[in-house]
Specification:
Rossmann fold, six-stranded parallel sheet, single chain
Length: 223
C-alpha cells in the first residue's frame, strides 16, 4: 500500500527568507538604476503574498509598470535567486532531511508541488540532493491555470494517488489539499498567516512533528 505526501517548497521545505531579501534588493536596485523605481524595496509586501505564482507577484509589486518591465524583472529576480541558492545562501528547514529519511524508510512516496518556476526548483533540488527522497518535483509552470489545486490534481492523476496529504504554509496549499480530497497540513513557519492556517486539518510549527503525526495518529494515507 503506497502512502503519498505532496510538499510545498518555499516556506515549507526551503527557507526562502534567507535569500529573498538579498535577491529582491538586487532586483529593485537594477530597477532604480534604470529609473524605474524610486521607493524602498517592497519586501514586506512580497512576504504578504508569498506563495502566489511569480506573474501575480509582479502584478502586485509593479502595478503601474508595463508587462515588458515585469517580465524583465521576473528574469532578473529568478537569476538572483538561483545564484544565491548555488552559493549556499539558502537552507532547508531544520529536520527536513531527518523526516524525509524516516518517510522513505517507511515507504512514503514524496512529491513537491510548488508555485516556483522549473529552473528555480531544479536549483534547490540539485543543491540539496532532494531527489534522494523526492519522486518528482512539479512546477506551477506545468499548469496553464497557474492554480495550485490543478497542479496537485495532475500529480494525483499521474501517480494514481487515492489518499494522502498536502503539506504547505499558505492557503493555496491548504485549498489544493481540500479541493482534491487530501489531508491539509499547515506549516506555521516564516510566511504563514494565522487566518489561513485555521483552514488546515493539522498545523505544525516544526518539521519534526510530522514523524509523530504519521506514527501516532489515526490518519489514513494508504491507497
Amino acid at each position: 500500500m503506497s502512502k503519498s505526501l505532496i510538499f510545498d517548497m518555499d516556506g515549507t521545505l526551503f527557507q526562502t527568507n534567507k535569500i529573498l531579501e538579498i535577491s529582491l534588493n538586487d532586483t529593485f536596485n537594477h530597477l532604480r538604476s534604470k529609473n524605474l523605481w524610486d521607493k524602498e524595496t517592497p519586501i514586506e509586501k512580497y512576504r504578504e503574498i508569498m506563495g502566489v505564482p511569480l506573474p501575480k507577484v509582479w502584478e502586485a509589486l509593479l502595478p503601474i509598470h508595463s508587462k515588458e518591465v515585469r517580465e524583465q524583472t521576473d528574469t532578473l529576480f529568478l537569476s538572483s535567486l538561483i545564484e544565491n541558492i548555488r552559493n549556499g545562501k539558502g537552507a532547508l528547514y531544520p529536520n527536513v532531511r531527518e523526516v524525509f529519511d524516516y518517510l522513505k524508510i517507511n515507504n512514503y512516496s514524496i512529491y513537491i508541488a510548488s508555485n516556483g518556476l522549473i529552473e528555480y526548483l531544479d536549483a534547490i533540488v540539485k543543491y540539496y540532493s532532494l531527489d534522494k527522497w523526492v519522486s518528482e518535483t512539479f512546477s506551477i509552470q506545468q499548469i496553464e491555470t497557474l492554480d495550485k489545486g490543478d497542479l496537485v490534481k495532475s500529480i494525483i492523476s499521474k501517480y494514481n494517488i487515492k489518499a494522502g496529504a498536502v503539506i504547505g504554509d499558505r492557503l493555496s496549499d491548504i485549498n489544493a489539499a481540500k479541493d482534491n480530497g487530501l489531508i491539509a497540513i499547515g506549516c506555521k513557519f516564516d510566511f504563514s498567516q494565522e487566518d489561513e492556517l485555521e483552514h488546515a486539518d493539522i498545523v505544525i510549527d516544526d518539521f519534526i512533528q510530522l514523524k509523530k503525526i504519521f506514527t501516532e495518529t489515526k490518519i489514513t494515507l494508504s491507497n
